[in-house]
Amino acid sequence: GENVEQHPSTLSVQEGDSAVIKCTYSDSASNYFPWYKQELGKRPQLIIDIRSNVGEKKDQRIAVTLNKTAKHFSLHITETQPEDSAVYFCAARGVGTNAGKSTFGDGTTLTVKP
Amino acid sequence: IAGITQAPTSQILAAGRRMTLRCTQDMRHNAMYWYRQDLGLGLRLIHYSNTAGTTGKGEVPDGYSVSRANTDDFPLTLASAVPSQTSVYFCASRPGLSSGANVLTFGAGSRLTVL
């Protein structure tokens, strides 16, 4: 099955700096890569996603890049703010017998210091 | 408000007891999922259902069972709870399996403690 590795497990940045979280996946057939933000005690919520036919996608301060050849994708947050502090999860969704099943990374705890 | 409702929010359970976590959605989503979340381990898929009447096993199915009698409900049952099943359980759904139905919607979670 699919295996997703996420790094780093913790990340601390100063307010205004950029944050980058990286994920690698094992199944070259995976075609959908979402990122979720989970605040303390809350449910995960989608913040951005990318499909395998796209190399980069941006939404205001958030961007995701995908390198299909290397099987890795990254989340970039610019001009970080204290409210960006949360746990971020990447995921990869399979195809075929794995269609619909998302495999998640172990999460990155981002702390933005004021 | 459309979404996913999970119950109970929190439960403490004695080992060996049977427990059912309820999940109901009103979005008419075809696909539903149960994940468990443990500290440092992210979200792991327990069971899933691509459509009413079908279910499948995820990464960590042992000790759990599910049913999908209709579109809206997807209960998760622990037949005989063990302490290693202490976790936060999230139910999720998405409209279907087509490439245009990607986004997972999560419930608020059920925190289960097995003593």
Describe, in plain words, how this protein is organized in 3D.
The complex is a heterodimer of chains A (114) and B (115). Chain A is built from no helices and eleven strands. Chain A is mainly β. In chain A, the strands form two sheets. In chain A, strands 2, 4, 5, 9, 10 and 11 form a six-stranded mixed sheet that branches. In chain A, strands 1-3-8-7-6 form a five-stranded antiparallel sheet, with no helix packed on it. Chain A is globular, with a radius of gyration of 14 Å. The model of chain A has no long low-confidence stretch (mean pLDDT 93). The N and C termini of chain B lie far apart (35 Å). The mean pLDDT of chain B is 92. Chain B is mainly beta. The chains are: A mainly beta (114), B mainly beta (115). Chains A and B meet through strand 4, strand 5, strand 9 and strand 10 of A and strand 4 and strand 5 of B.
A few lines on this structure:
By secondary structure, chain A is mostly beta strands. In chain A, 0% of the residues lie in helices and 55% in strands. In chain A, the strands form 2 sheets. In chain A, strands 2, 4, 5, 9, 10 and 11 form a 6-stranded mixed β-sheet that branches.
